[in-house]
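Researcher: I'm preparing a figure for a lab meeting and need a structural model of a single chain. I don't have an experimental structure, so a prediction will have to do for now. The sequence is pasted below. Please return the structure as tokens so I can convert it later.
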Amino acid sequence: MHWLERTELLLGIDKLNKLKNAHVLVVGLGGVGAYAAEQLCRAGIGKMTIVDGDVVETSNRNRQLPALVSTTGHRKAEILADRFRDINPDIELTVVNDFISDEKIVELLKSKPFDYVVDAIDTLSPKTFLIHHAVDLELPIISSMGAGGKMDPSKIMVADISKSYNCKLARMLRKRLSRLGIKKGVKVVFSSELIDESAVRLEEGRNKKSTVGTISYMPATFGCILASEVIRDITSQN
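Model: Understood. Here is the structure written out token by token.
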């Protein structure tokens, strides 16, 4: 029995082959991105480039796929690479253990013939530049907005970024992209649920000014929806 037998039963061999021949770039392997990448792997995506320079911290264990007591201090990208090869030994993986800065983004996007880009970055500047340059290079991209402070999965939606609302990250991203001439044409996953301000703690840290409370299932659900959009878009192509 082939491990993708049930996927083939659902999709058919032609669509399954589209997934096997596709190369997806996933940038950011935290609460959202790791789940997105794993669902892509389990669906039979043949090639993936995964990018994250972070290591597992104790505070990640409430929501992040690679975060265990035994993996604390280990590189997220390497943990997931081992996991994905254990799921699909035939997957072609490119592992980038790095935080991509603005100047590295174009180089990354041009490094492979990507069929799709998944943006799961939680820092505004590289997120903006990744989307900007993906659009400029005419690469299909889907971007995750903020999953923090949200608890109701039924409020998660997929829409053009111009239609997103009740999300601070989306609002700031829209402003930055607008300055770069991008006002629409970017697919995003966002939640319309309002955040209780008591779930936000102000603090100064690396690349952030606040910490937002999170629950286990919300980033995972965002990641699964990202993967579903990528899979359905790739399999619907002629």
